[in-house]
Amino acid sequence: MLFKRLNSPATLQLIRYAIIGALITALGQAIYYYGVEWGRLDPNVSIAVAFVIGVAIGYFAHGWISFAGHGARDDHAGMSLRFIAVNLFGFALNSFFVWLLVKALGGPTWWPIVPNVLVTPFATFLMHRHWTFG
Q1: How far is CA 56 from CA 2, 83, 91, in A?
Q2: Whole-angstrom Cα distance, residue 39 to residue 20?
Q3: Neighbours of 115 (CB within 10 A)
Q4: Inter-CA distances, 107 with 41, 60, 68, 110, Å
Q5: Is 98 helix (H, G, I), strand (E, B) or coil?
């Protein structure tokens, strides 16, 4: 019974999404951190740069790998708009964490990395699975 649950399509999608998402998230957070620390960019500008790069990579990686075989693929224009909308939500959430933890609370620039890695990916997975690629 447990093996069947672990081998379910949703579980396998979550695992693929987590692996690809972890790679994209790590790249994005590195871009954010180095943009702020070395490039002297404003934290919100740096997270915006990371977002654009992550969305471009993520659309293809998640569509081809994470959600391969899931849902209909006959409306690419609609699917890409939904993908962008979900990622704009994720961007807004990550930007909120940057604003709250760095600007409002005066914390170090690494603080937002924690919720950006632990909260946002799970929210966007659910939205992508049920809306973008559903």
Answers
A1: 36, 10, 13
A2: 26
A3: 16
A4: 17, 34, 40, 8
A5: helix
Residue 1 clears pLDDT 60, i.e. is over it: no
| Model confidence, pTM | 0.72
Query: Which pLDDT belongs to residue 27?
Result: 94
Per-residue pLDDT tens digits for 19-76: 998 899 899 989 999 999 999 999 889 988 998 999 989 988 988 898 887 766 677 7
CA distance 91 to 88: 5
Distance from C-alpha of 63 to C-alpha of 69, rounded to nearest angstrom: 9
What count of residues does the chain have?
A: 134
Q: Which residues of 26-59 are buried (b: 16+ CB within 10 A; e: fewer)?
A: eebbebbbebbeeeebebeebbbebbeebbeebb
